[in-house]
Amino acid sequence: MITEHVQEKRQFGHxxxxxxxxxxxxxxxxxxxxxxxMWNLLHDWWTxxxxxxxxxxxxxxxxxxxxxxxxxxxxxxxxSAQAVLETYFQAWKNCWDGRADAPAFKSRIRCVMxxxxxxxxxxxxGRVHRRWGMVNIPExxxxxxxxxxxxxASKRANKxxxxxxxxxxxxxxxxxxxxxxxxLESKPEPHRxxxxxxxxxVNIPLALPDGNHQVHGRPARxxxxxxxxxxxxxxxxxxKLLRLEQRAAHRKSFRKPKERSSxxxxxxxxxxxxxxxxxxxxxxxxxxxxxxxxAEQYGTVVVEQLNITNMAKSARGTMDQPGKNVAQIEDxxxxxxxxxxxxxxxxxxxxxxxxxxxxxxxxxxxHERPVTAGPRGDPDR
Length: 381
Fold this sequence. Notes:
Blueprint: E1 7-19, H1 22-48, H2 56-69, H3 71-74, H4 78-96, E2 114-117, E3 126-127, E4 132-137, E5 141-146, E6 162-171, E7 174-186, E8 195-200, E9 206-207, H5 235-252, H6 263-297, E10 300-303, H7 308-316, H8 326-335, E11 351-353, E12 360-362
Parallel strand pairs: 8-10
Antiparallel strand pairs: 1-5, 1-7, 2-6, 3-4, 4-5, 6-7, 8-9, 11-12
Helix pairs in contact: 1-4, 2-4, 5-6, 7-8
């Protein structure tokens, strides 16, 4: 019997690190600051005008006039400026539909620096060799990026499989490019695997009743018994982080109140941020690989639904009967928060099962069937 596979379009993003020269890095930084300023000007213009004067044609004309009159706004390509307008208007649509809060001004310090490239045909992506590729960035030129995934570019691109655009994003590790990829793939069939419940813990990150526990591969606690908050760093990286924190504290002691931070202090903060970002990347990599492996092995994955806010509030107690060890309970609740799961994993409302006995009850919060603890006890002990 021949089974016909239904083809459907799939859209996803792929992020790769850019290898920029100092001059290219400066140009992209200028574009990102111009995009942030464009957003703030749009927000100021939109909120100041009466409702009957707000229109896309009027704001488009204002953007063109601003790019013609202000030199540092002209460094932002015209297509990227139109993308800022489209993103801002979509933010208002999300607010009107009740999906998000109203747009607000973007701070220079807190916002994520980004530049949108809406046209995929302008990228002209090519693969140089096994590890590196090249891409065209407006007003910057040809830039190398790390090739870690086959992309539908050049001869592989067609009407159904192609790159529709990209976005430049900056984090603590530098500039990255996020490609918007559209492919035509077979519709996935229902997974025939078994059902499993997962309990998120501290000593055992993901405990499963069948014994297939998922651990981080590194000790969660220090020799003195305290939690290791930097367990995703190596020994040399931990020593470097300690030196940088001590150096930053020493340099900060010479800064007077309301005085701008020195270049050396900011450099120390940047190095600390880079190490923290490295640890975060390793943690996210473990999450992605682990959840993908579980999704491929099991047909239904049931994750405990924890209300972290209520757990922390109940731990604080009242004025007459204050809680004990509130900070430790809040830290434990934060660590037990469920993480990201890949698409296609079926999750139920709530699971409650004791220890590793392999028995759990399905149901909503407050309506679970009682279960008894297994002989092996709590996996978090």
